[in-house]
Amino acid sequence: MTAGVGRARRRRRPTVGLFGQLGSGNVGNDASMRTVVDHLRSRHPTVDLRVMTTGNHEVADRYRVRASPLHVVDALPSRPHGAVGMLVRLWGKAADVVATVVWLVGLDVVIVPGMGVLEASVPMWAWQFPFALFTMCLAARLLGVQVALVGVGAQAVTQLPLRFLLVRSARTARYRSYRDELSRTAMHDMGVDTSSDPVFCDMVFALPVPVGVMPTPGCVGLGVMDYHGRNAATDRRRDAEIHASYLMMLSRFALRLIDSGRSLRLFVGDRVDVEVAEHLLHELRAARPGLADDRAVLVAADDFDALMTAMAQVEIVVATRYHNVVAALKVGKPTLSLGYAPKNAAMMESFGQGRFALALAGVDFEQLCDRFDELDADRSAAARAIEESSARYRTRAEEQLADLSRLLERRTGSSPRPGVPA
Predict the structure, then answer these.
(1) May I ask the CATH class of domain 219-389?
(2) What does CATH list as the number for 3-199?
(3) What is the pLDDT of the chain when averaged over all its residues?
(4) Is the pLDDT of residue 233 over 70?
(5) Phi/psi at 151 (nearest 5 deg)?
(6) Which residue of 67, 210, 303, 324 is most buried, as measured by CB atoms within 10 A?
(7) Could you tell me the residue ranges of all domains in the chain?
(8) Cα–Cα distance for residue pair 415/164, rounded to 1 Å
(9) Strands 146-152, 219-223: parallel, antiparallel or unpaired by DSSP?
């Protein structure tokens, strides 16, 4: 870029794009976006914000920003099936490339906020979001737009097409930071030079926590997930069996809690999890017909604040989704993680709670019950350790946002608002 073009960029209003699976029902992804939007609007109020996302209508309504669909076919009133449907999907991929290029024109920086954009911990295909990310990163490089992968999660991937797209996307980005050391190591192991890439933490730790919320005695939070196994060929062939086994274990565990006199709050982290929670409620009420309504309740929080407030009202949390675990730790709750990916265990280890991180791929009902009873027996000690670590994580998240401000200042000349720390 010439010096003249650089000066022109600084004379006009800085324009920043946000890119990802945002506003589409995943509470964790949306919390990452909100963290960045809040930071930009408080520290860099002159920035013109644009978004390309799977949930463009919801994002546009919530944040009053210009939002474009990540996939052109999502704007169609209906999608045909069969051979015609395949042709429409192929056309849609080509149209997505054009739409992405058009969206990038005029942007200074594109931020991919948090999220596990460089991992494949759940079943996915290369031509889904990984292809969209690769397309955006490549087009941005050609147009001179800097891409910042901010506080993202990563995982070593063995499937060659998926690995190619994720690695190329990471290499093309001008800025990369990670939410844990596990992610940076994974990218290094896949051939990305991570020597200049900082590690902070999950950026949602910068969000405020609810205050003055008291737990209900005897109340347990159970975070559920529409879990069908890992992103591996062996799990894909057994996805129905894996899902049924997961539901059975949770149903038995929920019954055990109810029979011991506990009350239960079922949490979800994505819209697709609601059906799982409803299934568990049905199983509970079928097995215990006289169960009072308030003994088992579904809490379908649609944002991270509501999720944290609901978790603050229980004494102990057992959760599967990563950001359910994060929310529980943020509000200082003794937490047992049923992890579907190594990131759950990494988070729990960093809070000194590694013993209470169980891997779904190997856990059984007896082990779950034994570990829950152990955690429940000394909740106060666990809560103290978690609260101390949570304060440290908030500081690290704020340092990540300060680093983002420095990137924006270098690229656009947009200094943080005077008198407000970056």
Answers:
(1) alpha beta
(2) 3.40.50.2000
(3) 90
(4) no
(5) 60, 40
(6) 324
(7) 3-199, 219-389
(8) 36
(9) unpaired
Polymer length of the chain: 422
Name residues whose C-beta falls within 8 Å of residue 241's C-beta, 6 or more positions apart in sequence.
Answer: none
Cα separation, 269 vs 122, in Å, equals 14
Residues contacting residue 216 through CB under 8 Å, at least 6 positions apart: 263, 313, 314, 315
The predicted pLDDT at position 422 comes to: 45
Comparing 3-199 with 219-389, is the CATH topology the same? yes
Nearest one of 217, 216, 168 to 192, comparing CA atoms: 168
Lowest mean pLDDT among 78-82, 114-118, 147-151: 78-82
The model's pTM is 0.89
Q: Provide the greatest CA pair distance for the chain.
A: 75
Cα separation of 103 and 52, whole Å? 8
In the structure encoding, which two tokens stand for residue 336, read together?
Answer: 């047992």
Cα–Cα distance, 372 to 368 (Å, whole number)? 6
Tens of pLDDT, residues 374-384:
999 999 999 99
For residue 346, give the amino acid letter: A
| Strand stretches in 77-144, DSSP E | 109-113
